[in-house]
Amino acid sequence: MAATVIRTTYALDEETVRRLDGLARHWNVSKSEALRRAIRAADADPTVPNDRLKALDELQASMGLTRGRARAWVRDVRAERRRGTERRLAKR
To answer: What is the DSSP letter of 29?
Structure first.
């Protein structure tokens, strides 16, 4: 069964059209489909977390991730990156 299509016209500013074009290229879809996706996303219930955020929340909860542990992890990663940079620069 064919989907009902309603054709309409809207006036958009240049920046919005540029961004719509970019989204359509990025998603490899028509501008109409990009607009439909953007409207659906904007219309989504903000009180219902999207699946990706829910999955991240569940992962963090399963790891017992706290703010303190997260800060410690960030500190350790930054220190490790600094050491890697120092080793790379020392080889020059």
So the answer is: S
